Amino acid sequence: MAKGFRQMLSADDRASMAAYEKRGLVVHMTEPVPPFSFIPWAMPFLSQMIGKAIGLCADTPPDIILGWYFEPYGVAAHLIGRLTGSPVVLQHAGSDLGRLMNYSDLRALYSHMLSQAACVITGAKPDVIERLTEAGADPDRLCRIRGSALDPEFNAAEKLDLEPLVEEAESWFSDYGMPDDVLNTLKEWNRAGLSCGDPAIGTYGKVAEVKGIYALIDALDRLAGEGVPVAYHALWSASPKRFAHAFQYLSAKKALKGRSIILPPLPPWRVPAFTKSCAAVAFLENRFPIAFHGPQIPREVLACGRPLIVSGEIYDRQYLRTSWSMASMSCASKTRKIRLCCVRLSEKWFWIRNCATACRITAARSCGFSKPACRSGRRSSGFLNGWCKGRR
Known about the structure:
By secondary structure, the chain is α/β, with parallel strands linked by helices. It has 17 helices and nine strands. It is globular, with a radius of gyration of 22 Å.
């Protein structure tokens, strides 16, 4: 896994992994290969995974091999299956079919993998099924699922203790590959952010324009400049270059200093606690180039019982609206505050739906992040201003 997407593991996390081993899950790590150890320069992730598997499977071949995401995991699963004779199950991402499959060289390999797979886990969308069958997947071997059940941990987790994580992140980021001035500013901002007790808007996942991160930063900066009590907490996944670019954008917003904490990716079992440490979580994906992309983050936020702020593009996803209508009402005490927030929002910039029934959900429809005017954060800040005042 490249830097920027590896998860930061603490001593407690390693203990959690040991507990999973008692239940049959064993995690094997590949050896780190120093940069520039090979010509041409390309990280040998695929070779490392196959080499690790050859050693593990030498005595006892696996009963089944799962490759989740085609590149490089599905490719590794396919090749290991050929070496061991074990059946292979593939699960694709939206980018596998909507982006990588468009390249002829990759399409030839993926088509072969799909035709040989014992099973392909996919969704129920007709256009996705059509792409898979056209690529060579056997229709009788497609396992169509609408969504997987979330672990009970999403309901049980406690709030995250940020102070030790900020300390651990300093060491983690030191080996990230960012310029020293960016690294030092990041450390300074994170330490200052610990003293802020204002309601925090959170995000986690990849950092990109299409994820709405920059628009959210603009909005929060506008609010903080107006004296609205608000903070920003995030788990950012990005290459060192993109991470540094996004943080430089954030650190230029002086009103957000002392209100922001940016951490690296955490293990999945820590994410629910991060979500519950936020007053609300934003998922503002917009203009995403893959139409059938189905992100799970909104469902995870709802499962944690936290208010969810979404873009109109995400709100319009049918699977998510179904989840909302089925959400249990575990935060009824906040109904009045959230409804007041929704009334304020709907006056100018947003149409709000489901505020009467799904009291823990704050949904922003037609927020138009694709419009240049929104780079000022005006529409976003209007929305968040209503939310923060509703929290008082």
